[in-house]
Amino acid sequence: MQGSDEHQPLLSENLRQKGVPFLTTWRSAFNSKDFWFAYGEDISLMYKHINVKLCTPFCMTLLFLSFFIWKYQIYDILYLEDGFYLVMMTVLFITSYIAYIRTMCTDPGYLPFYYPAHPEKQTYSKEEMRAGHGGKLEQIVWARRQERPGRCVFSKGAGYFVLRGDHFCVWISNWIAIKNHRYFYIFILTASIYLDMVFVDAIQLFCRYRELHSMYFHIFTIFTSFAFGALITFQLYQQTFLIAKNILTLEMMKENHKDYDRGCLNNCEEVCGPKKYMLFWIFPCFTIKSPVDPFTIPELGGPNISLEEVYEYRQRKEDGTLDEMFNLPNERKENPFVV
């Protein structure tokens, strides 16, 4: 079959019996293995799991631009002899850029919309994921009525279930979830430091050498560095608090807080990986798997939680055996929390 041929996957008997309406028609794009078109309510251009949007290349352009403005218009005037400052800012920029790319390109923890039809299956092929892109109304309605693991949401925008989905980030056209949350935190940490320092340098350049550039240059540099620096710094503050308390952004926004707090370090371990690899948490080049199995996270809130389960959770928290509750083998409860 040629790369541009249309794929019309057929429902298996098992999926039909579970009420799955139909699978998604798709075809490869540009004779590429990674680009493809999904036929939902609209035709979506996808790159692997990413719904391609214009904001992503726009943000990457601004990120590149910020480094060249700082290096060739600010550093060369203010800090030409300070080699350490150049190295520090370059390392911050490269680290933030790598973290940005990994956040965007890493599968955050997607599952096809028909996952609840056979929840024992946890891995899917590329073709199964494409056929499982839920972009039509019947698929979305069916998926939202099904049971799923705790803290798992169905995203209409992505067309997939998302394991431990924190929020959808429009700047990267991807969900922040169990598999890329750490990369996202590294990105906002390094980018906030970098952009805040660019803003301070831009103010200093304007005060001391305003005649070297036009007023338009100073306004552009100061405004963009302040706007993006303030935005990402606020995001850093918010994410630090939420990770430390083990609260998802969606839970905070919908005031649907659930008591998953297992202590600050254990909460960080859930996002960043085992504590024994703590020294590598800050490096986006390393892939570190979360010790928490997202398929067995218990549901600790909402109408489906019983008083006995609440008591068990609180008792385990007091006894220090809460980790065992996050690895129960067949714990699958309905979660009405959807996006």
Automatic annotation (TrEMBL):
Entry domain remark: The DHHC domain is required for palmitoyltransferase activity.
Top-level taxon of the source organism: Eukaryota
Subcellular location field: Membrane
GO MF annotations, alphabetized: protein-cysteine S-palmitoyltransferase activity
One annotated Gene Ontology cellular component of this protein: endoplasmic reticulum
Native organism: Tritrichomonas foetus
Lineage, broadest ranks: Eukaryota, Metamonada, Parabasalia, Tritrichomonadida, Tritrichomonadidae
The protein's enzyme class: transferase
Recorded catalytic activity of this chain's protein: L-cysteinyl-[protein] + hexadecanoyl-CoA = S-hexadecanoyl-L-cysteinyl-[protein] + CoA
Membrane topology type: Multi-pass membrane protein
Keywords: Acyltransferase, Membrane, Transferase, Transmembrane, Transmembrane helix
Protein name as annotated: Palmitoyltransferase
